[in-house]
Amino acid sequence: MSIEESALVLIDLQKEGNFGLERMDKAIRNTQEVIQACRENGIPIIYTRQINRADGIGLSRQEPLKEDGTPFFYASNTENIEIVEEVKPLETDIVIDKHRWSAFFDTNLDIILRSMGVKNLIVGGVVTDGCLLTSVFDAYFRDYNVHLVKDMCAASNEGAHMASLMIMANWVYNLKVYNTPKIIQQINGDGVNCWESNEVDSLQFTPENMRQQFAKLPQDKGE
């Protein structure tokens, strides 16, 4: 991975995510470490924010609403749309606001990345089975090399988290999967082993063997 052609893309690490996501605290702590490594090596950092207009204009079809008609999630009139304090962006960082799950859908993310000569995306964030997954697929469809940091991600439950990671591993053919220590070694220029598929659908899983197959991916930091 060429550092000069890389960027860190953090999906929706917003205050909204503090409500009901498993392992969010761990994902934030690991993100802090990766951000520091990226800053030390001059890798640009890009944040995305999911935003739903409080007046209801432009919402996705059947977006959940409160009784007063405002969006239940990521409402633009609440502080929940802000990035969590622990990984708050600097003025020199880039923040992309989006109104659909994928970080690429109707945003200028692709233009920004290409203008900076970026080919490699270091990716983490939430929700693993929603905005993260759709952003990873769209990055792949735009010919980026995706370096997914498994323990920088979080979902509402373990099954959804595991299944979505394995779906990405099976079908994003150029995907590389790391844990936090390994991606930091990679960023620092040390050669490391990561998980990458050697065949299509290499982590075939069923309800019965899901944990067994998931264990083939890198262990989270500390596990």
Structural overview:
There is one protein chain. By secondary structure, the chain is of the alpha/beta class. The protein has a single domain (3-214), classed as Isochorismatase-like (Rossmann fold, 3-Layer(aba) Sandwich). The chain contains 6 helices and 7 strands. Helix 1 runs parallel beside helix 5. The longest helix is centred in the N-terminal third of the chain and has 17 residues, at 24-40. The mean pLDDT is 94.
Low-confidence stretches: none
Bin the strand percentage: 15-25%
* CATH topology label: Rossmann fold
Terminus-to-terminus distance = 26 Å
Average of per-residue pLDDT values: 94
Q: What's the total number of strands? A: 7
Architecture, CATH level 2? 3-Layer(aba) Sandwich
Strand order of the largest sheet: 3-2-1-4-5-6-7
CATH superfamily: Isochorismatase-like
Count of the separate structural domains: 1
- SS-derived structural category: alpha/beta
H/E series: EHEEHEHEHEHEH
Fraction of residues in H or I helices = 25-40%
Q: Major β-sheet, in short? A: 7 strands, mixed
Rg over CA atoms, rounded to whole Å, is: 17 Å
Number of discrete helical segments: 6
Which CATH first-tier class would you pick?
Answer: Alpha Beta
Shape, please? globular
